[in-house]
Inverse folding.
């Protein structure tokens, strides 16, 4: 029975994952190397609970009880020593993740499941640095975690069926909908999403249509809530480029080759929402979508 959850990394996704576990009565140890980031994460979680209170989906008492379920740590060793499951949500960097999993293998109980929220790094590769590859699995939450229903569960080459079943049942306890897939580059979510985004960028690069036309066609024609270029800005163009490279190198197929326009934009520091400009420009206080001058 899983009761104690350690979350490694208190950034965008880590605070959301800690939030949903705490709200569902799990004991959560939130671990980050950066103490300031832990402080910021607790503030974000508190603000997101206030939003749920304002919507009437939870009470003030539930917020209080949920926050009391979260403890913070700056040391992996202290934060994982009695964990039933550890979910690694640190930055998307393979060397960092391999180092963290080696450390987790030494620190967490031998029976603990070690999961990763990685968007694109091979679960099989991560599992191979541990002495318990059958206990290693991908648990890919979507952003924002308290809102998005999907958990993409990724079986590594050696993941045992018991562990998969346990993670399916755990995801359901969080009110999420689990989908189990196998460990190949991009899993399913990004193997399908990223080529669509790349094709939208190619369509712009080839002059077939402009930014607004491409996004409007996909929004109104396919009932997507956001066009692919706006979504790329939201995800981060650097993140899109790095996942496309994982697909391109992993499958050795040129159909995944990143569009030269995407490469140029990342090189020029135009990364989307986080840098203030991508296919659109983002200015504080303005919620209207404004196409970047570069594409007018
Ligand atoms: N942001 C998204 O939309 C999204 C969606 C799905 C999956 N993911 C995946 O989730 C993971 C985290 O992404 P994010 O956007 O939350 O990143 P982020 O940069 O917001 O947060 C990463 C956190 O990891 C911490 N960290 C770095 N090294 C650490 C270590 N050794 N020990 C403990 N903490 C450490 C950092 O201090 C930071 O707080 C990545 O693998 C990413 O691919 C992200």
């Amino acid at each position: 029975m899983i009761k104690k959850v350690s979350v490694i990394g208190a950034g965008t996704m880590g605070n959301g994952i800690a939030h949903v576990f705490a709200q569902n009565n799990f004991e959560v140890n939130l671990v980050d190397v950066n103490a300031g980031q832990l402080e910021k994460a607790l503030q974000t979680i508190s603000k997101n609970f206030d939003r749920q209170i304002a919507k009437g989906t939870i009470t003030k008492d539930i917020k209080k009880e949920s926050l009391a379920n979260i403890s913070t740590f700056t040391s992996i060793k202290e934060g994982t020593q009695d964990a039933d499951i550890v979910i690694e949500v640190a930055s998307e960097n393979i060397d960092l993740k391999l180092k963290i999993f080696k450390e987790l293998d030494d620190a967490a109980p031998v029976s603990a499941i070690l999961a990763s929220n990685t968007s694109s790094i091979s679960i099989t590769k991560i599992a191979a640095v541990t002495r318990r590859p059958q206990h290693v699995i991908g648990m890919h939450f979507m952003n924002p975690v308290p809102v998005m229903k999907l958990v993409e569960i990724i079986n590594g080459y050696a993941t045992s069926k018991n562990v998969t079943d346990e993670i399916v049942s755990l995801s359901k306890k969080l009110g999420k909908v689990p989908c189990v897939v196998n460990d190949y580059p991009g899993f399913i979510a990004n193997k399908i999403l990223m080529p669509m985004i790349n094709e939208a960028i190619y369509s712009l690069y080839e002059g077939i249509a402009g930014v607004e036309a491409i996004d409007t066609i996909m929004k109104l024609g396919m009932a997507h809530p956001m066009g692919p270029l706006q979504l790329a800005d939201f995800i981060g163009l650097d993140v899109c480029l790095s996942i496309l490279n994982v697909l391109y190198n992993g499958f050795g197929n040129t159909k995944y080759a990143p569009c030269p326009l995407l490469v140029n934009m990342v090189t020029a520091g135009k990364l989307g929402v986080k840098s203030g400009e991508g296919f659109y420009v983002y200015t504080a206080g303005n919620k209207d979508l404004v196409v970047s001058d570069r594409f007018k």
Remarks:
- The first helix runs from residue 12 to 23.
